[in-house]
Amino acid sequence: MPDPTALEIAPAVAAALAEGRAVVALESTIITHGMPWPQNLATAQSVEDAVAAEGAVPATIAVLDGVLRVGLTAGQLEDIASRTGSAKASRRDLSAVVARRQTAGTTVAATMFLAARAGIPIFATGGIGGVHRGAEDTFDISADLVELGRSRVAVVCAGAKSILDIPKTLEVLETQGVSVVGYGTDYFPAFYASSSGQRLEHRFDSPADLAALLAAHRRLDLPGGILIANPVPEADALPAEEIEAIIARAVAEAAAQGVAKKAVTPFLLGRIVELTGGRSLIANIALIQNNARLAARVALELSRL
Ligand code: PSU
Ligand code: MN
Asked: 192 CA distance to ligand 1 centroid (A)?
């Protein structure tokens, strides 16, 4: 019987890794729980295309019928995007999902863990999970932050949505020993908005400099990841006050309806799309593509070192 915990690495991804060529990992909870059908499929395809257009190989990671897949075919991508009832797998869920032969989108935490096992050094997503507002009562702190302290994978994101408590999120990242750097900015971005107002210690301005950062991290043999914070392009940003009011409303609704645990983030993401009449989705898609392009450029620079 084949080992169910073995990674099923797509041929194009395996070949690129063996030859030291650029590969970018991509997550799949954004497909299963982060965006509605059919924009989830169109976005996943366009993000893969953006990576390929830069000359890197995309590797979307997901669990399909209990198989840990690194790199999906077009048919597999469509399958996971169109299915309903897929699980949301963070690190703690991986073993159960494999043992039960389930299908799941992998969160940033689970995707980092699997990318590190596959030997992929960089990964692009939209926003990471973080410390939720009110965490002093709920203790709701995403496993993404702890995984960033464990798995050596650089994560390119547009910061964190202000559904989260961003100052507390940055504190936990510091506690976890995660290097958080701004790309072309001195401030941690807030997903739809280019700045959260929170100053960062480190700023990098080119993919080559970011590749040098990753190389130093590896030579130091530091465990854990690096968080590359890439602001949403100005043209795609949403007005800060408007989105803030909508987020506050969605957070209040979640509390009033008793939404808790792993359902919180998908609930809030869905409500924000509804309350903005779909405009938040357009910004979301643009920033993910922007992150995928940057990750591909850094991966290319890394492959030249
Ligand atoms: N934040 C977003 N979009 C997303 C997610 C977070 O702006 O799609 C997804 C990611 O997959 C992330 C996960 O890893 O939600 C975090 O979930 P939780 O807060 O339950 O850890
Ligand atoms: Mn949580």
From this structure: 15
